[in-house]
Design goal:
Blueprint: E1 6-8, E2 15-20, E3 23-24, H1 25-30, H2 32-35, H3 46-49, H4 62-75, E4 96-98, E5 115-117, H5 120-131, H6 135-141, H7 146-156, H8 165-176
């Protein structure tokens, strides 16, 4: 079972699951002006260096924005968590978890195989464990979907051109299965 990992929100000071920049989902969504990404805040991100990031309203590249919009439209009436099967009303980017993070792996940023649908709480925990390369904990906390994620990773690995630790750790992990 997925356990909630709560911390104090920097804006409302309530003990909640943090979503973005130290804020809970409610505060983060009401504070969109401070959450928009600009090209200057991206530094030397892979998407920026490959020319995929341009200044756009909302801070997303045209390719990523179009990808999210198309995916969101396809999920409009039928989104369900891959882990629990829970219906997700009004699915949006917060429900679309990248297996290989889009900022670090632009080669698969817009590949639908690189996306799994989760509730926002599950997405937060999934990203937290994935960022720490804690595959055994992912397998334990996401027992219904981890096998599907590993299948997707096997499909994605030949397409990943970036030579980064997550890719190498996934290769080593999958080799040991």
């Amino acid at each position: 079972m997925l356990k909630a990992n709560t911390k104090k929100c920097i804006k409302c000071q309530h003990e909640r699951i943090l979503w973005s920049k130290g804020m809970c989902k409610s505060c983060a969504s009401s504070n969109k002006a401070t959450l928009t990404t600009t090209s200057s805040s991206l530094g030397n991100s892979p998407l920026k260096s490959k020319g995929l990031i341009q200044k756009t309203k909302g801070g997303k590249s045209p390719e990523i924005k179009a990808f999210y919009e198309a995916l969101q439209e396809s999920l409009k009436d039928s989104a369900r968590s891959i882990e629990t099967g829970a219906a997700i009303v009004g699915a949006s980017a917060v429900n679309m978890a990248h297996i290989f993070p889009k900022e670090s792996f632009p080669s698969v940023a817009t590949d639908t195989a690189n996306i799994i649908i989760l509730t926002w709480e599950e997405h937060t925990r999934f990203d937290e464990l994935l960022n720490r390369h804690e595959f055994d904990k992912l397998a334990q906390e996401f027992p219904n979907s981890w096998g599907k994620v590993c299948t997707k990773v096997k499909q994605l690995l030949p397409k990943v051109t970036e030579q980064k630790p997550l890719k190498f750790k996934f290769e080593k992990y999958l080799h040991g299965l």
